[in-house]
Amino acid sequence: MLKLHALAQSRSLRIVWLLELLGLEYTLCQHARHPGTLLAPDALKKVHPLGKAPILQDGDMILAESGAITDYLIQTYGNGRFMPERDHPDYWQYQRWLHYAEASLMPLMLMSLVFRKIETAPMPFLIRPAAKKINEEAQSRFLRPQTTQHLRHVEQALEGKNWLMGDFISGADIMMSYPLQAAAARSSLGMYPNIRSYLARIEANPTYQQAVGKAGKPILQLA
Length: 223
Prior knowledge:
This protein is α+β, with helices and mostly antiparallel strands and 223 residues long. It has seven helices and four strands; from the N terminus they run E-H-E-E-E-H-H-H-H-H-H. The protein has helices spanning 13-22, 66-77, 91-120, 128-157, 171-186, 193-204, 206-215, and strands at residues 2-7, 26-31, 55-58, 61-64.
């Protein structure tokens, strides 16, 4: 049986959602966050050397990285569902979205979080103005412009579509759900009606709701 090691209230929810979509039997092993840092516990290192979630076990195989897990589950158990056929013109665009979510969009969310934490971290009073200036410079010169560029790109890609690949949910939507939810937690997304509608469709999906019931909603502020 498939076993998923997931960090409580994390982006691991995406893989729980996919398992529900696929209708597969699986065991969900929820790992509590470290009480001091809210990060993954050391116990996960017994499953995989990096000690990060999600981690999928399928027999003797242990697989980390959400994109790789998504691709593996769909190609192994999807029976042609949730992805374009390999010879379809959209196949490589589908693959691009799988990787884009964590390689391009999510790093912007994480960097924004890190710089905000620099400003609010405990520090000597005299250093605080410099920390605030560093955060403001990083946000205004790089992070906000880059985030705007990427959100505009996703907004355009969703024009006239229910899902990224058209009329059917795919692995691309599984992977893109979390970084877009993280973006929505930082902004109203008022300029991006397609993204807002897209996130509403995700959260209204019955299998997504089943996944939330089992794994809990992610803490988006932790990215």
